[in-house]
Amino acid sequence: MSISYASSLKAAPSRYTSIAIAFHWIIAALIVWGFSLGWIMTDIPGFTPAKLRYFSWHKWIGVTVLVLALIRLLWRATHPAPALPAGMHTWEKLAAHAGHAALYILMLTIPVTGYLYSSAAGIQVVYLGVLPLPTIIGPDTMLKGILKTIHIALNYVLLFAVAGHLLAVIKHELFDKQRLLARMLPGRD
Fold first, then answer.
1. pTM for the full model?
2. What's the pLDDT at 15?
3. Which end of the chain is more exposed for a tag (fewer CB within 10 A), N or C?
């Protein structure tokens, strides 16, 4: 008995795995929380207990996002995403892939620049208040300013990338009726 080549290919999944969905929404929530804290904490004058607490939480969120994003990348490498609809234009598919790549790059580089910024400021990151993370670079005033600027700029790039992602979801859901959102919603297995 012979099996044809076409039937031996594994069919592309129609939706993301439950693990991928969990990574997506947990990381998204952490990013929103971390960005919000960053916005609030930088407007608090002086070094109040609340400001220091917010900075700690912000750093813990950043480390968590970095670790989860790395695990998510490993998961994605072994569990392919569902194929984009055949009716999508080539430029839309390219934009979707570029947008997702940008989001992954930002999920990795923003926490790294924040971590390096803390190191250059001479402040050790103590994850969850119990696990001191290694200091990669020593205190450096000039590098501190550069890393702070890069960290803030990348966060605004992320804000625009997320806005673009959300606008694309709205376009594909409401106007194109492609129902891509259902592939990323939990509880639909």
1. 0.87
2. 87
3. N
Domain 15-80+87-183: give its CATH architecture. Answer: Up-down Bundle (1.20)
Instruction: Give the other-Cβ count within 10 Å of 61's Cβ.
Output: 22
- Type and span of the H or E element at 126: strand 126-127
HSE (side-chain half, CA atoms, 13 Å) at 111: 25
Select from 27, 42, 11, 15 the least CA-distant residue to 189. Answer: 15
Mapped onto helix, strand or coil, the DSSP state of residue 183 is helix
- Using alpha carbons, list the distances in angstroms from residue 168 to 10, 14, 46, 153: 28, 19, 40, 23
Q: What is the pLDDT of residues 39-93, one digit of tens each?
A: 999 999 998 999 999 999 999 999 999 999 999 999 999 999 998 888 889 999 9
Domain edges within the chain:
15-80+87-183
Separation CA 24–CA 12 (nearest Å): 19
* Predicted local distance difference test score (pLDDT) of residue 156: 96
